[in-house]
Amino acid sequence: MPKILPITTYGTEILRKVSKPIENIDIDTINLVNDMFYTMNLADGIGLAAPQVNKNLSLAVIDISKLEEYKDYKPFVIINPKITDHHGSSLINEGCLSIPEVRGDVKRPEEIYLEYIDINGKEIKAEFSGLLARVLQHEIDHLNGKLFIDYLSEEDIEKNKTLLKKIKQRKINPPYPIYNPKSKY
Ligand code: ZN
User: Fold this and answer.
1) How far is the CA of 162 from the centre of ligand 1 (A)?
2) Which domain holds residue 29?
3) Is the pLDDT of residue 184 over 70?
4) How far is ligand 1, taken at its centre, from the CA of residue 75, in Å?
């Protein structure tokens, strides 16, 4: 049975680390992926990267099928992803399970070329655009220790200052369990 994993929040050290590449996809990787899908769905997210469940691994899960427009789109896993090229740009409002309630407009490329390994160890090269390109870039940033708030204007940061401080102090109560650095799990 998959289990729910507590989500690391802004201020937790692992969110600023570069994730380690995965060399072997073993049963632990598969269990982690299942737990991450389970956790992401309960938290109502559309993407979740391993550092968000306190694992320093280059892996993320994506599921945009909750959105009507993408309901036929199958959930998938990206391992050791690398963006090799990009085009265009768009400004979209983003949020993050690790930074509850904070939202802001982020400018990113509209289209990306991505290389990654799938859950079966197969090397994939693919082009993504629109919302999927957006979610993928957000998750890949997590694997590089980057957060969407790093792109916000000073004005937006100022607006969210109190909230960000509260998140850092873990004085928040999102509708999903959050990781406590003081407990050992
Ligand atoms: Zn995020």
Assistant:
1) 19
2) 13-168
3) no
4) 17
Answer yes or no: are the C-beta atoms of 137 and 108 closer than 8 Å. yes
Expressed in angstroms and rounded, the spacing between residue 74 Cα and the centre of ligand 1 is 20
Q: Could you tell me the pTM of the whole model? A: 0.96
Across the strands, what pairs with 112?
86, 128
Looking at the domain assignment, is residue 124 inside a domain?
Answer: yes
Any idea which residue has 């870039």 for tokens? 137
> CB atoms < 10 A from the CB of 105, how many?
13
- pLDDT tens column, 119-166: 999 999 999 999 999 999 999 999 999 999 999 999 999 999 999 999
Band of residue 183 on the pLDDT scale cut at 50, 70, 90: confident
Active-site entry in 69, 94, 111, 139: 139
Task: For residue 11, count CB atoms less than 10 angstroms from its CB and return exposed for 0-12, middle for 13-18, buried for 19 or more.
Answer: middle
Has residue 176 been placed in a domain?
no
Residues 84 and 81: their CA atoms lie apart, in Å, by 9
Is 139 a known active-site residue? yes
Domain holding 144: CATH number?
3.90.45.10
